[in-house]
Structures are given as structure tokens and as C-alpha cells.
Design brief:
Elements: E1 2-4, H1 9-17, E2 21-25, E3 35-39, E4 44-48, E5 51-57, H2 63-71, E6 73-79, E7 87-97, H3 104-108, E8 117-131, H4 147-167
Antiparallel strand pairs: 1-8, 2-3, 2-6, 4-5, 5-8, 6-7, 7-8
Length: about 180
């Protein structure tokens, strides 16, 4: 394992080549649920050598957002499923930028637009490390799934707003999402 002071060009190339990444957060409470979510599509961006973010979609839960608003802790993990083995973990303190926030236009302009975008999850990194990844199996990427964007397009803006109001108010532990 090696710890880096920032995301350098070589690591950025590795991160951008991955078709999937994982995001983990947890509440302060030892009784709460740890959340680990796989993410795909072209949603992750390196904003600067110590800041990253991804497009967050309206969905079945609000674990990441609720945890970040409670304590800010977040970790991203990238695994090489093709090519040489490698794992990269990015630990940081995250925040949530929503369309109603004053900085939305500036932040969102750095990311691809998708129907169903709920927010941008952004993190300032304080630990950047890689490890061998020898135990990660090899898989061949076929394609990204299109169900997420199709679902959001079918719902439309009003349907997404209603879904968010009905399903994205509190997380599994009862923590508020604070979504507007």
C-alpha cells in the first residue's frame, strides 16, 4: 500500500478508466447502518487533485446524503476488474450540492447531465491510497445499464419530485436527508 499527497496524473488515468466505483458512508451511531453503494455511468469527476465528486440520482434511498449531512465522512473505492490488479481508496469529507444551491450551475457544469440527477456529492480528500488488488477477480465490461435514465425519463420532472418527496426524506436510520 502507498499513500499519496494528492491525485496525480497516473492515478487520475486509472480512476477515469474504471467503469464502476463504490461509495461508503456511515452514521455517527454504532447502531446505524453502514452504507456501501456501487456507482456506474460516467458520473465521477476529479475536480482538482484533492477534490472529487459524482452525480447522485433520485433513487430508492438517501443513505449517502443523510450520512454526509450528519458527519461528512465518505470513502470511494475503485478496483481494477480488467488489466493489472489495483485498488484505490479516496477518504474525505463530503458535502451535497443541490440544484437549488447558489453554486449548483458552477459545480454541475463539470459533470455530464443525466435525467434524474438529484445532487452532486463532492468530497475534499484527506487520504489517498492504493493497494495491490490481487484478490479482485477479472471481469470483462460489457456496457452500462440504461434503466436508471429510462426510469427517470418516464417519471419526468414532476414524477421525480413526487418520488423524492415520498421516498427520499429520511434514510434507513431515520436521519433526515435535508433534500430541498
Amino acid at each position: 500500500m502507498k499513500v499519496f499527497p494528492e491525485i496525480d496524473d497516473r492515478m487520475a488515468t486509472f480512476i477515469r478508466a474504471q467503469q464502476m466505483f463504490f461509495v461508503a458512508t456511515a452514521p455517527r451511531s454504532t447502531e446505524g447502518f453502514v452504507n456501501l453503494s456501487p456507482k456506474g455511468l460516467d458520473t465521477f469527476e476529479i475536480l482538482d487533485p484533492l477534490t472529487v465528486g459524482y452525480v447522485d440520482f433520485v433513487g430508492s434511498g438517501v443513505e449517502t446524503i443523510s450520512h454526509l449531512r450528519e458527519n461528512g465522512r465518505i470513502v470511494f473505492m475503485f478496483c481494477a476488474f480488467e488489466g493489472p490488479p489495483k485498488i484505490v481508496r479516496l477518504h474525505g469529507r463530503g458535502d451535497v450540492v443541490e440544484p437549488s444551491d447558489p453554486e449548483w450551475e458552477e459545480v454541475a457544469s463539470r459533470f455530464p447531465h443525466y435525467p434524474g440527477t438529484r445532487a452532486i456529492v463532492r468530497a475534499r480528500l484527506h487520504r489517498i491510497a492504493d493497494s495491490c488488488g490481487y484478490g479482485v477477480p477479472l471481469y470483462e465490461f460489457q456496457s452500462h445499464r440504461d434503466q436508471m435514465t429510462e426510469w427517470a425519463e418516464r417519471k419526468g420532472p414532476d414524477g421525480l419530485a413526487q418520488y423524492k418527496a415520498e421516498n427520499n426524506v429520511r434514510n434507513l436510520d431515520g436521519l433526515p436527508s435535508g433534500l430541498k
